[in-house]
Amino acid sequence: MNRHRIPTRRPLALLLGASLLAGCAVGPDYQPPQAEVPAQWSNQEQKAPATGETARVSDQELGRWWETFRDSTLTALEKRALKSNLDLKLAAARIEQARALRLMAGANLGPGLEATSQFRQSRSLASPLVTNGGAATIGNQFQAGFDASWELDLFGGGRRGVEAADADLLAAAQASLSAQVSLTAEVARDYLELRALQQGIITTKGEMAAEEQTVELTRQLFKAGFNSRLDVETAEAQLANRRALLPPLQAAAQQAMHGLAILLGQAPEALTAELSPTAALPEPPATPPAGLPSDLLRRRPDIRQAEANIHAATARIGVAEADLFPKLNLTGAISLQGDAINSWFNWTNRLWSLGPSASWQLFDSGRIRANVMQQQSIKDQSLIAYRQTVLSALQEVEDALVAVNREREHQQALRQAREADQRALNLARDLYTAGQTDFTSVLLAEQTLYTADDALTQSSKALATNLVALYKALGGGWQTSG
Asked: Where are the domains of the chain?
């Protein structure tokens, strides 16, 4: 009686032991990295007036920060870029790839079933001792069936593989969001550059018109005998030099339109007709509250991607360590076999096999342990990359805050200087007309005013661009819904 029970108990005990082992997984468990960030930004400490707490920009405003510029064309370009940019489409394809790899990793934990069929025809001699003239027979063999196998994940290597694939999928999703952050900032920068160039073109044309009046004035005074021919030639040279500034500005504006079209996934000339009409440079909005440095760990997708990379690398240590332990497979097969088609599917001709198989790599010249060391090194590299990403993010915010604050001061001083330069030019022209000063004073006053105009335009562009950089550094541009 016992002889019949022993074969039954052993497989049951083996399966019970396997089920107990399946609850554990080799390798280290993932621990989120601890990032050291300052308590406050050194260049901005804003408190909410009602609570006294540190002011934060809302996720909704950060997600669509370009709307704070109140420029309908910029808003439309951003929306179109988020729909059609090729880099975003590439990032989306990479997410699908990561998702497929995750499905593959999960499928490796389950059993496999394979259907097989074959036909074999063979010729054999009636007697192996007869070499010449012996009778030969030709036989047919038909066989069809199923082979099943299942590698039990006793030590958790497969589950660690799924864990790594989940982290890779998260990293791919965060990379896509990071691409959105970069794209929205790039669209805004190119658009601001275009409008600044167009403003420069308008300013240059206005200066040309003023200098044409100066040329005409010098000619009239020369005809009246109140100045020399030198004043006329100098004024005409100044006008020619001003005209020479126009073509490079027009070329740069055209190139900016080309760049925007590419960001929208279109041909370079696609936006020329739409953006050629000149428009004013958008008025820079107020500086957004930066919140706390710790907010970056939640908000910036590149930091979250770096953290996901650490998780994936940690899980792959377990995948590598699982190769140090035995592997257990449950296999089974069933088939029907016959020597003729009409007897092929006769149930009495069935063949079957069932049983576990185990394997253990006892010696491999250190290959498995070397792979474990490699995966540990990759995890260490991922942790270093994470810390570097956090430090770079902190620097970007601090740099942007400094740039915004100092540029506002710079712009205020430039406005005051420009007003003074305009008054000086008006006075110089009046004195020159009255014959109380030479033309050099007028020329110098004009040059000073034109320089101030250009500096003021560049400052407005710089302030707006610095605000774009601040929104990008804060992780804005990817929460586009809601």
From this structure: 24-111+156-325+370-473
